[in-house]
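Section 5.1 Outputs to date
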Amino acid sequence: MRNWKIFPKDPTVAQYIDCYWLLEKTPGDAGPVSPKLNPDPAAHIILAHDQQPYQYQHDSYLSTGVGSHLILPYQKTYTLDHAKPFLVLGIKLKVGALYSLPLMPTHPFLNEVVPIDVQQQLHITEEQRAELLDKSSQPATHYGHMLDNLLQPLVSGGKEDKHSLLVQKILAVLSDNSLVDTALTQMGEKLGCSQRTIERSFSKVTGITLKQYHSMQRLEAMLDHLHRLETSNINWSEVAYTFGFSDQPHLIRTIKSTLGCTPGKYAGERDLAIDAYGNFE
């Protein structure tokens, strides 16, 4: 099993792209058959060979297909099918980037996995995509330079308006991990505009509310923390306190509603992608 994560160097690309990542499972690799993806407010472009299958499932929702595709921001945990060898090259967009980039005909789009036409939507030719995927043994830095160049036509079509510019300021404030739920209502005061304007612009650009985004970021930070702990060392009361939950029952409800299992079951199975492959996305 091989994986890496790198960040764009070109400032124009970095305005819309958070990172690039690669994950490869070759024949003989021991890996999870059905890992899970925790909720993510950002979209991911997945580059893959034309005949490589994919599957994403949550409750009654099932998306299957082959080749390259786009994972839109999603609020529930997806179960994947990683039973067979695969190679995927991911492009993680920044939160709200779908609003500005010419990728989707309508916006916002949430909780779906859709096919993507690499040539029409990304302006990457079949030869260029094949070169990216066929040279998977190259160093990660090689990919970073190539992708920065290949994504120039896409990001050059990005358009900002008053809503997207305000959301960029909101996200900069929210990057402070010390921010708690009660401080969300003071965002307007911090940025010199009404709270109603803050909430309206954030939902328009990202498709989710400010509170939903903060909850998803808190969950991600908590799962990253748990990933670093041995199961026997997890104290759920301490975890609840550290990540700003009102009490342990609140933490339990959150995990059950988003991951679909109890904290104890999650700790026993460790079946999220972050546990299987590390925090590479």
